[in-house]
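Sequence in, structure out.
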Amino acid sequence: MKRHWPLLGLLLLLVVVGFYFVKAGTKIIKAPALLKDIVSGEGLRLKDIHYAQDNPDDRVKWVLDAKEVSFSSDRETIRFKAFTLRVEPEDRSGFQLKGDRGKYTKNNGKIELWGNLDGSSEDGYRIQTEYAMINEKKALLHSDRAVKISGPYFQVNGKGLKADLNGKRFEVLSAVTTVIKEDEIDL
């Protein structure tokens, strides 16, 4: 009987190892099905992300940091919450916008932003509004809501905005009030 102890020990070891393989195998089979359900259903959700868009065909490059991001099932639409968006136009200094939520649609290159938008540029300008849309292919920013733009020498309030992100030109569309800070400039 002593001669059979090593064989019984080996058999017991094989049974235990086999049990764990069978148990682990069922988990491996279930995990991809769960991932497939998430991606094909409502899309994929991620927390605390850093996403960069650096397509050479587009006139604007940008980097997104957000607390929460969800991708559509076809991965063409990205929705995000509590974000900071750093925009880098081709031929001028960049700026960043912070806000509550946004949506990026890849096929048309549009970034829509909503809620407490507060933007600042490297050269001292600031914009505040509740909604803005950036067209990365044309390097344009547009808003149809109330806007406040301030710079080192002026402040402009109004409704609606069109801005060329690669140029130094913006247009407030209606109900415009402008304040020039004359103590800052020599007249």
